DNA sequence: AGTTTCGGCGCC
DNA sequence: AAAGGGCGCCGAAACT
């Protein structure tokens, strides 16, 4: 029994609310109130709030201590519906959706986030796009009808509701922040980089390594300048195209070791060093801005602080509050398990029906027990590897798990032929860009001159099309995994609602819950249950299991 | 001078 | 012979 209300912020800071019936249409008078937080707090019986945009509304509710059970984010739903309808290029704002309904001129979307560090969040800037509640309700009613017309209406409803749940989780994480010990972070930096010199120059250890590199070359070399390093190697009679680790690593030259060490530490210094600490950590919390569904595959992104790329060594600084713990949970072999569920390959489902190491099981069936080779083969199939051992291993994989490989092959072919590709729940990848875009340039192929000859001849796909195929091949797995992960998060969030536990971090297949030590056991169980529930809800009844490795720790770095 | 792209690498 | 997918971030380089 859901009690659904709609809510729209007004220009004057007030709010309009209205009750909705089971059909999604207004079931009572439209009410005007002065304070959004009070409007929500005074209606505890409401289980789902329908609103334009969670990032617009929810942070100000959280700021006053108000949480909601569920919501429906109209603009996120519009994005998903447009994508599903093959209209991903059309403006996704509620105002645009309303204009399409009423046949008026469709306003373009407000510009996306401004570039550059220190820029204000785009999410909180979209103030010019208020829509009166009556208009919002028209869009909502239309969206409900469009769900019915989707390829799988039930899945589409699940997708938009779980995406909405994701926006709530993200907003709450942004509000809570990740517990962060600045003191520990400084200790880690000092241990790795040595003293920090005044004036922002290189710390001691980096300066020493730069000296070692220079000594090895016999001349002054700046290791942070790729062009300088390439010149230096050329001077030593070694031709390199780039200074990437995989290209430099195998060279026989005394500069290599200090150079690689420099690059590793330089990265820590510039991306997660003292200035990062100053910019992003306040009052014992790292506050990145999580954004649910920020990518075409449905994975989240963050803005600011690189929250999804925290280096392993820096995780030492993620420390629970006194008396609290971090429950760190990592889904085991999520992608092949998802592939089993979406392809319904009997062999792979059977393997994925056990909680034990999936790659080990695959290796025993198809690779004489060579786990590393099995893992490479599976990931190669998912990522579209086109060369090396992966190709050979793919044949072995195909013999044992034909439906699984066929599933990703079909997705790749669909992409190459320009067809739409969807995740299990119906998130749809936008159609390919114009021919000649991006990929050809990367490959150094001039655009225009021979574009026709390059592509679309039988049996040979163009560079663009093959890149497209790799993308769609990966999309169905990565995106369906994101479908599952959202439902898992939503279930876990609900389990934590009655506890002090707070969700503080989410990274594709990994979640961290911060909770009092006494709640850790309950949280661990809740994660297991959420994972299995999400598996059933997302993919229906399959034998596939979704086990998590969980660790109850005081410090993130101790989890693995 | 300010803005965009590049090279490289962090995470999954 | 071979270019495996998705992201964000930084400074330098390249551009306007």
Outline the biggest β-sheet: 5 strands, mixed
CATH class of the largest domain: Alpha Beta
Q: Going across the major beta sheet, what is the strand order?
A: 3-2-1-4-5
Q: Tally the beta strands.
A: 14
Under CATH, the topology of the largest domain can be stated as: Nucleotidyltransferase, domain 5
Task: Give the count of structural domains.
Answer: 4
Total helical segments = 22
Unreliable sequence segments: 113-128, 434-460
- Secondary-structure-derived class: alpha+beta
Query: What is the approximate shape?
Result: globular
Looking at the overall shape, the CATH architecture of the largest domain is 2-Layer Sandwich
Helix proportion of residues, in percent?
Answer: 40-55%
Instruction: State which percent range the strand residues make up.
Output: 5-15%
Distance between the termini: 42 Å
Average pLDDT figure: 88
Please describe the topology of this protein.
Elements: E1 4-9, E2 15-20, E3 31-33, H1 36-41, E4 48-51, H2 54-63, E5 70-73, H3 74-84, H4 94-102, H5 133-148, H6 153-176, E6 178-179, H7 182-193, H8 204-217, H9 226-235, H10 245-248, H11 256-272, H12 274-280, E7 281-282, E8 285-286, E9 289-291, E10 301-303, E11 324-331, H13 334-343, H14 346-352, H15 358-366, H16 371-383, H17 389-400, H18 402-416, H19 439-442, H20 451-454, H21 463-496, E12 502-506, E13 510-516, H22 520-539, E14 548-553
Parallel strand pairs: 1-4, 4-5
Antiparallel strand pairs: 1-2, 2-3, 6-8, 7-8, 9-10, 11-13, 11-14, 12-13
Helix pairs in contact: 2-6, 3-5, 3-6, 4-5, 6-21, 8-11, 11-12, 13-14, 13-18, 13-21, 15-16, 16-17, 17-18, 18-21, 21-22
This protein binds a DNA duplex (12 and 16 nucleotides) through residues 115-117, 224-227, 242-245, 263-264, 267-268, 270-272, 276, 294-297, 299-312, 334-335, 379-380, 382-388, 390, 439, 442-443, 463, 466-467, 470-471, 473-475, 477-478, 507-510.
